[in-house]
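Reviewers of the previous submission asked for a worked example of the structure-prediction workflow described in the proposal, so we include one complete record here. The input consisted solely of the amino acid sequence. No template or homolog information was supplied to the procedure at any stage.
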Amino acid sequence: MGTARNWFKTVRKKEARDFNNNVSAPSRSSFQINHLTREDIAAIKIQSTFRGNLARRAYRALRSLVKLQAVARGAYARKQAQIALQCMHALVRLQVRVRVRQLLGRYSDH
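From that input alone, the workflow returned the following structure tokens.
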């Protein structure tokens, strides 16, 4: 969990750095620079923070869903293994009965 948190922190820092560089970059046309007011920049930052929060929430939900699937699949696999063991035990008991009948049949003939 710490790794994902560090990754998101790094991405946020990089995006903020890139955003700040792009806003004040001389490569933008004067039309674009003039139309970005402080309110626009604040709105963009708020939106990007909100979208990042939504993405992290979706990632957490997905991760918890994967864990839930793993638990369910593990329980199903254990149940299948238990059923297979019961069938094998039944077959062994049947083999023992057949073998006993064979042996009793041999000795009763003599």
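The mean pLDDT is 83. We consider this example representative of the routine output the project will generate in years two and three.
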